[in-house]
Specification:
The protein has helices spanning 26-32, 53-83, 89-102, 133-163, 167-195, 205-223, 230-244, 267-282, 334-339, 349-360, 475-483, and strands spanning 12-13, 38-46, 111-118, 123-132, 252-254, 258-259, 297-306, 309-318, 324-333, 371-375, 382-385, 389-390, 392-396, 400-407, 413-422, 431-432, 437-438, 444-453, 462-465, 468-471, 489-490, 493-494, 497-507. It is α+β, with helices and mostly antiparallel strands. The chain folds into 3 domains: 12-133, Thiol Ester Dehydrase, Chain A, CATH 3.10.129; 142-339, no CATH class; 349-507, Immunoglobulin-like (Sandwich).
Length: 509
């Protein structure tokens, strides 16, 4: 499958006399680029004394592109989360793959325009990312067709290598086909989400499923098995990465694997990550433990129950361009995990899944506000064990009000910050929350929800105990008072909103 190209068009209008493009204004932008036809991302910000115009526009372009991508990926995840339990077994796996294969991927066909207006004492930069939905759909439909043609050629090449007893060459070809499947699954997810149709002929679901099964059977035939112990599965994944790697010197960061299409981990996730890191080092590959190193490759993984075994799918992605570089699939018998006393389910999984489904409905995306929240371990697939300490950091690129709510494993809801005002002096400044959390019972999945907007939030009901404000409203009421409507226009003034969420899996040592 051809490499997915991220097409970025930067049109710099630097003259102070140039007329502002129509997309700079909220009403005009929505009229010319309506949500039913376009994917969009927009960001604006006043220039400061410590940055150049080029630096500002470059950063805003990144914000706008990320906003567009996050909007469609969030919708893919929401579709997967909300619909997965209402379909049959085969479709369940498709929805799980929709979410996992699109996670951390990008969107083809984006264009980005920038504009800078100079005022008497300062200036304002603008960036707008957009993609016509029909163009995106057509691009990914074509990618699927091209893959189907190329896959037949690659399978023949693998067969020839096997017949000549060149098993390593055959495995390399077959593993790379599995990597292409991840890109095809992402293409299917985008098309399904944009069209609302899971059964479009252009998705070629039957043909793709048959190709996947054929490739897996050929790999199994060469290895004489597709089931491994936990340690052997770690070796298998490492070997697949090694065979597909063009540059083995690039550092690989291993993310905690997540259960099904959720952001939740388990004791298995933690144990498996450590096993893979050990095997990568033994294979001569470089392992990174740094947080948010943009030069790293990141190995993501998802797993779920399939009869009496655990199915594991991995994908290695570049942080530079989000491209899938390697992938693998294997099974671990449940009996192996049971013998080692390793749990693969989060302790409060069912309740946490219900909570995640509530979050997924009507999640706030888009808008001219960029907020960030992270921990000392980053933002993704977070696991904390007993007695570990958690510190939180936030940042916003505009003046806004921030609300932070922590949903504990026992169902309690703590209001950490409410209507905390980010004034101009705090814009783009890292703020460390004045709270330090120690991981303790009850263990399970916990969620931190961060919302921001340019007007104060509606007040929530709470009672104060032990130095914390515990919310008494139920989750539906909290979300309604926090999210409200996605956008409201009063006297042509846009109500700007933004939302981020961190999910933690806590467990004993």
């Amino acid at each position: 499958m051809r490499r997915i190209l991220i097409l970025s068009l930067f049109l710099l209008a630097n003259s102070v006399f140039a007329q502002a493009p129509d997309w700079v204004q909220f009403e005009a932008r929505n009229q010319k680029y309506p949500a039913d036809k376009y994917l969009t991302g927009f960001s604006s910000e006043a220039i400061t004394t410590d940055q150049t115009q080029k630096k500002l526009l470059g950063r805003l372009s990144g914000y706008a592109k990320n906003q567009l991508v996050e909007a469609i990926i969030t919708e893919i995840k929401a579709t997967s989360t909300l619909r997965m339990n209402n379909v049959n077994g085969n479709s369940q796996e498709e929805f799980k793959l929709m979410s996992s294969s699109s996670s951390h991927a990008s969107i083809a066909g984006m264009k980005v325009e920038t504009y800078f207006t100079q005022k008497k004492k300062d200036g304002v930069g603008y960036a707008f990312a957009y993609a016509l939905k029909t163009d995106v759909i057509n691009y990914y439909e074509n990618e699927i067709q091209v893959f189907l043609k190329n896959s037949k050629v690659q399978i023949n090449i693998a067969d020839n290598s096997t017949s000549q007893r060149k098993n390593e060459e055959a495995l390399k070809t077959l593993y790379r086909l599995q990597t292409s499947f991840r890109e095809v699954e992402h293409a299917q997810a985008v098309i399904t989400t944009l069209t609302g149709n899971f059964d479009l002929p252009s998705l070629y679901r039957t043909e793709i499923s048959a190709a996947k099964e054929d490739v897996q059977q050929k790999i199994t035939g060469i290895l004489n098995t597709d089931q491994f112990s936990l340690e052997d599965a770690a070796w298998y994944i490492t070997r697949a990465i090694s065979l597909q790697s063009d540059d083995k010197s690039l550092p690989i960061s291993v993310s905690n694997f997540t259960f099904e299409n959720s952001p939740m981990g388990s004791p298995f996730s933690r144990r498996f990550k450590a096993a893979i890191e050990q095997k990568l080092i033994a294979e001569g590959l470089s392992v990174s433990t740094k947080v948010d190193n943009t030069n790293d490759l990141i190995l993501y993984g998802t797993y779920w129950q399939e009869n009496n075994r655990i199915k594991v799918i991995t994908v290695l992605r570049s942080q530079q361009n989000s491209r899938a570089l390697a992938s693998s699939e294997c099974f671990i018998p449940k009996t192996d995990l049971a013998a080692k006393n390793i749990a693969f389910m989060p302790e409060n999984y069912k309740n946490a899944l219900i909570t995640e489904q509530q979050f997924a409905a009507k999640e706030v995306t888009g808008g001219d506000l960029n907020i960030e929240i992270w921990t000392g371990k980053g933002t993704d697939n977070l696991i904390y064990v007993g007695d570990e300490y958690l510190k939180l950091f936030v940042r916003a690129n505009k003046e806004c009000y921030i609300r932070l709510i922590y949903y504990l494993a026992d169902g309690s809801k703590v209001l950490l910050l409410d209507n905390y005002y980010i004034d101009m002096a705090k814009v783009n400044v890292v703020y460390e929350l004045p709270y330090t959390f120690q991981c303790a019972e009850p263990f399970g999945v916990e969620t931190l929800q961060m919302n921001a907007q340019n007007k104060p939030f509606e007040l929530l009901k709470f009672t104060s105990e032990y130095g914390y404000d515990f919310l008494s409203d139920d989750m539906a009421t909290i979300l309604a008072k926090t999210r409200g409507f996605k956008r409201v226009s009063a006297d042509k003034e846009e109500l700007i909103k933004a939302e981020k969420r961190l999910v933690f899996t806590t467990m004993s040592k």
